[in-house]
């Protein structure tokens, strides 16, 4: 065990360590071990214990027992009683989840009060194996199968688990050899909770097949963590090609062609990093099915397609452009505005189209349109497209559907219904703003000319 602690650099001299102690054999062994370790490493210890109020007087007596041991061994004690039943009802949680949240909230407060460096738990190798088996049954995504970390940041310092190299029986034997009298929680024998079922029905069989199961699972957890850290760092390079905005609830945008140049493993990891960014790391509803849907979207031949993800997130493909967004274009209704000479109209997206008249205008760029006033009926109309819209393009015989122009120009489907076009009073489409120009000019430069300008 000392080798395991040194390997993972779990404890440093003069550390302030909060010990999470319930009174069971695991945490009692933890308390005793650190009590003897503190003299060697000059540690400052604080015992923290929580009465969850789920077993009446029994759980209260557990708390009092831990407090008496702390005082007996001259260790500072901090304890609390929490109302799990009320908390789980108020937050819509299960009993175990509610108890865990309240427990960790208390531990964080204690760490902040004493400015602790470490919070130590008595989790052992069998706990690790149970955790990973449960993760295997719930998810096929590698990101979800990693076990409990040996060390991770928490509150003012880190959570450490120095007993992950041991099995449950090691700790029971330790308590026996040091004449410790642990308390036992009878709820651990009930199979109402998934972990208890795994512990009683699956673990004995697994350990009969491999008595070193706890060691194998711990090594796997460490390797998975190392590999995942490497891949995550590499995937962050992929995110350099992604435009991320507004954090949780925001959006992400990138080019499919650039994204697909990376190995598939990095694409997968980048996909999940994007979701972590947009969901704020709260993505319990995302499964491997969403991952498969996303990669099918990248591969399919249709230039325009979209997916609906949990909590209103849409994944939109528009030709080579991929967009993740919580905003919807459904609320953008059609518009129709009258435009007079010398005036301008403002569009819902903030862009402006203006109209002026004069004897001679130059027509430079796609955002300016010039036409002969003798061939149009004023005032002009700026509107969104309608079913069946057609326009005659300059230099073209016959008309073309506006829908087909959008397709030819690879305009994303979600932009087409709000794209402005300009007509005269007779309905003739003069200009698909910033995109295609219709006929309306003569070869005679004399007379009054009209100049439209589109400012996005």
3D architecture notes:
- The chain folds into 3 domains: 2-227, HUPs (Rossmann fold); 242-327, Uridine Diphospho-n-acetylenolpyruvylglucosamine Reductase, domain 3; 336-455, Phenylalanyl-trna Synthetase, Chain B, domain 3 (Phenylalanyl-tRNA Synthetase, Chain B, domain 3).
- It contains 14 helices and 22 strands.
- It is 39% helix and 21% strand.
- Strands 3-2-1-4-6-5 form a 6-stranded mixed sheet, with helices on both faces. A 5-stranded antiparallel sheet has the order 7-8-11-10-9.
Characteristic terms for this protein:
456 residues, alpha+beta, Rossmann fold, Uridine Diphospho-n-acetylenolpyruvylglucosamine Reductase, domain 3, Phenylalanyl-tRNA Synthetase, Chain B, domain 3, 3 domains, 6-stranded mixed β-sheet, 5-stranded antiparallel β-sheet, 22 strands, Rossmann-like_a/b/a_fold
């Amino acid at each position: 065990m000392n080798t395991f602690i040194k390997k993972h650099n779990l404890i440093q001299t003069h550390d302030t360590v909060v010990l999470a102690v319930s009174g069971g054999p695991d945490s009692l062994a933890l308390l005793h071990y650190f009590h003897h370790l503190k003299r060697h490493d000059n540690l400052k210890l604080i015992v923290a214990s929580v009465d969850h109020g789920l077993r009446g007087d029994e759980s209260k007596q557990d708390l009092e027992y831990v407090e008496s041991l702390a005082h007996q061994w001259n260790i500072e004690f901090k304890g609390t009683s929490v109302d799990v039943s009320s908390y789980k009802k108020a937050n819509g949680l299960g009993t175990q989840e509610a108890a865990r949240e309240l427990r960790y909230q208390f531990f964080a407060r204690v760490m902040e009060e004493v400015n602790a460096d470490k919070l130590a738990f008595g989790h052992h190798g069998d706990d690790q194996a149970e955790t990973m088996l449960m993760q295997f049954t719930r998810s096929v995504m590698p990101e979800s199968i990693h076990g409990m970390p040996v060390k991770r940041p928490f509150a003012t310092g880190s959570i450490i688990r120095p007993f992950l190299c041991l099995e449950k029986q090691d700790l029971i034997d330790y308590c026996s050899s040091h004449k410790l009298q642990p308390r036992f929680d009878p709820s651990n024998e009930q199979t109402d909770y998934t972990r208890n079922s795994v512990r009683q029905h699956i673990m004995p069989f697994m350990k009969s097949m491999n008595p070193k199961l706890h060691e194998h699972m711990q090594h796997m957890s460490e390797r998975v963590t190392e590999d995942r850290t490497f891949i995550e760092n590499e995937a962050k390079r992929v995110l350099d090609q992604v435009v991320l905005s507004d954090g949780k609830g925001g959006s992400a945008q990138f080019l499919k062609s650039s994204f697909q140049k990376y190995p598939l493993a990095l694409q997968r990891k980048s996909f999940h990093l994007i979701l972590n960014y947009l969901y704020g790391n709260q993505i319990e509803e995302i499964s491997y099915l969403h991952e498969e849907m996303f990669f099918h979207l990248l591969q399919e031949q249709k230039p325009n397609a979209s997916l609906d993800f949990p909590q209103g997130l849409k994944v939109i493909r528009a030709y080579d452009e991929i967009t993740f967004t919580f905003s919807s274009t459904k609320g953008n209704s059609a518009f129709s505005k009258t435009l007079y000479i010398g005036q301008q109209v403002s569009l819902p997206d903030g862009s402006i189209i203006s109209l002026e008249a004069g004897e001679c205008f130059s027509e430079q760029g796609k955002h300016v349109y010039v036409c002969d006033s003798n061939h149009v009926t004023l005032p002009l109309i700026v509107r969104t497209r309608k079913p069946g819209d057609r326009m005659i393009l300059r230099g073209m015989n016959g008309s073309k559907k506006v829908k087909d122009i959008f397709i030819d120009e690879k305009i994303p489907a979600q932009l087409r219904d709000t794209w402005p076009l300009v007509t005269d009073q007779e309905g003739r489409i003069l200009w698909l703003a910033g995109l295609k120009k219709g006929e309306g000019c003569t070869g005679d430069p004399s007379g009054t000319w009209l100049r439209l300008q589109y400012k996005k």
